[in-house]
User: Fold this.
Amino acid sequence: MAAASTRRVLPGFGLSLGFTLTYLSLIVLIPLSAVFFKTASLSWDAFVQAVAAPRVLASYRLSFGAALLAAAINTVFGLLLAWSLVRYSFPGKRLVDALVDLPFALPTAVAGIALTALYAKNGWIGQYLEPLGIKVAFTPLGVLVALVFIGLPFVVRTVQPVLEDLDTEIEEAAACLGANRWQTVSRVVLPSLAPALATGFALAFARAVGEYGSVIFIAGNLPMVSEITPLIIITKLEQYDYAGATAVAAVMLVISFLLLLLINGLQHWTERRTAKVA
Amino acid sequence: MASISTSLSETPRGSARFERKAATRDPVWVKGLILFLSLGFFLIFILMPLIAVFAEAFRKGWMTYRDALVEPDALAAIKLTLIAAGISVPLNLIFGIAAAWAITKFEFRGKQFLITFIDLPFSVSPVIAGLVFVLVFGAQGWLGPWLSAHDIKIIFAVPGIVLATIFVTFPFVAREVIPLMQSQGRDEEEAALVLGATGWQMFRKVTLPNIKWALLYGVILCNARAMGEFGAVSVVSGHIRGQTNTMPLHVEILYNEYQFAAAFAVASLLALLALATLAIKTYVEFKASQQHRQGEAR
Assistant:
């Protein structure tokens, strides 16, 4: 901040910022604004009819409910996985560490058909669940499975670095002061992981809410039962109901913006928290 | 494992740091339970889907597999996927460098907003990413009448697919490079200028070597997403066989026609791409941490 006098020593400010703003506006901001302009052209009644029809409401319940549940599952198992990767040595650890990111790298359509093959009636996993009366493929449970798959790396990759940077000394101090291992972990380690866990949860949730490719293959897509909100948008588009599709998209966009703000806030919290510990 | 890096830091690196000391060591049964749960979860949710892709692809034998890949529609899909990635990745690379340069080397108002806006495409559903281009370029969109008067097709054609791909892969390079350049500051570039380098020389000889691993990292992630994007591309593609189908869309069509072996054959190519991406990514992470440690030792 004190370096204000030197701030334009380096060349290229106008060029790089100008290019950045132009490209950002053309590719992202102007196209996105079209959603709101198109929605604004609807009358209030038409808007409510589009975004609050029973079938659409059922899709919100499924999309947001399954995304919340999947993010919660990922927070628990993501923490365990990050803990294993940071704290323990076991054979194949580096392979596991590298493959955790598979859901980032694997195209969602591929994930979708692979999960469907696994959980179908005669699939590797489905054949054992079927006798128990558990149907996964083509039910809301299938949606949950797909969302757990795509959300896992978010939690692992936000928790892992924080866990790695954690000083062993605070745990030793806790142990010296008479805390048992469980007390140390629950009162000392977990609180310092809380911001990272919350960030990972929010990232996994935000991704899961908008997810399309991996879900539609396994969901079965029954209206009112296993139809996610992004599919509602597609269906409306295929029926040339552009205004209706856009109205639902606007609702989802507003929620995404709010989530983005929340995530930014959480990340600030994580940084402050980590800075304090260090 | 622990003896590798004693010269660089006194404490052992990796898990040994925790497993050696009584205070940070978990009881054996706890360790066993956590490993069982986390690796079991990993096996079911990550490893099995991956193996399933290849098992299903080869279920009907090598010949079916090969036929599915050399069939003209499949080749057209592969070509279109390469085109879409070939255009969107370089554009987003240039954007990423420009944005990182402006954001990390200069002070200006609204910078935080700019960073948030750059991340925006990550939090937008892919379906909406496709929809926005239909609203701008579609028949009923803002530019629709003008485009049809001039006989230009964007939606349900290749340009729309490229645009949607650029949108969904927009932040990848920028968000890898920005934090790195932020931590590096601007001293080295300023020194180069003082020593008489031109702007271009400074960029090529000082900035680029410093950020090359982060750039490569961003590019491979960007590329993986560009080649694998499904939702956004599906909205703008129109699904014309042999013309506007990318590989993921081709997988969908085959799958919906119950040609499962063929669908998984094409999917297995994409899975190989994902594995290659992860392999390069792991290598780049290793290289970047090496560079980082050298930088600290200097």
